[in-house]
Q: What sequence folds into this?
């Protein structure tokens, strides 16, 4: 069963395995910077603490960054992917990045995890008070486009090679499943 869990270094091993499996592919929604290398549990702990700060709307964030909930997608007690839910858009996110980014480790794709994770993230977005969210994908990213459309995304336009879709949260169904929110603090184990 797909869950979204608050990042926690206790799941370091499957988190690290997931990152490794991405290889050269960028793990969208993970909060890991392009080319950033995170080796070992201590680095994971520091990374998690830093990313959880982003969930606090009052936190001082680096220039150009907006508050964001980072989640790890879990199946049982195994981390299999990532979701980032930005609380608001800046100019770049409005044009290119959108509110929500996600990825699933290659060996766990086509099992419905992204669709379920997106539905859970939409529930969290509604809790944050958003009434619509923007999602984007590259024009040739069929898997992501189908995931977005499955979540209720309505195509608006394409800008700089990015297809842009809006999901109306006042209409979307309430998802089943669980989300352990960053604000809840660490400790909620994936069920
Ligand atoms: C996009 C991604 C997250 C989809 O993850 P997933 O867990 O395989 O997706 P799901 O199994 O939930 O499938 C969602 C939909 O996409 C379709 N789909 C998934 N992979 C597909 C593929 N390779 N080709 C065609 N359709 C595909 C599924 O059939 C499903 O469509 P349906 O609801 O009409 O049946 C995954 O491919 C991925 O991590 N890609 C790299 C990162 C990325 O592109 N992230 C998005 C950045 S905007």
A:
């Amino acid at each position: 069963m797909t869950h979204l869990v608050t990042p926690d270094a206790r799941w370091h091993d499957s988190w690290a395995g997931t990152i490794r499996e991405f290889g050269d592919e960028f793990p969208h929604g993970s909060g890991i910077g392009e080319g950033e290398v995170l080796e070992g549990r201590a680095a994971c702990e520091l990374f998690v603490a830093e990313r959880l700060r982003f969930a606090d709307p009052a936190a001082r964030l680096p220039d150009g960054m907006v508050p964001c909930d980072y989640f790890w997608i879990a199946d049982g007690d195994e981390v299999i992917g990532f979701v980032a839910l930005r609380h608001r858009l800046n100019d770049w996110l409005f044009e290119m990045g959108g509110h929500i980014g996600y990825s699933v480790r290659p060996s766990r794709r086509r099992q419905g995890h992204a669709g379920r994770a997106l539905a859970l993230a939409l529930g969290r977005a509604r809790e944050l008070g958003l009434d619509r969210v923007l999602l984007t994908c590259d024009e040739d990213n069929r898997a992501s486009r189908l995931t977005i459309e499955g979540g209720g995304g309505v195509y608006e336009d394409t800008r700089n090679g990015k297809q842009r879709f809006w999901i109306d949260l006042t209409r979307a169904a309430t998802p089943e499943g669980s989300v352990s929110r960053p604000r809840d603090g660490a400790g909620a184990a994936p069920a």
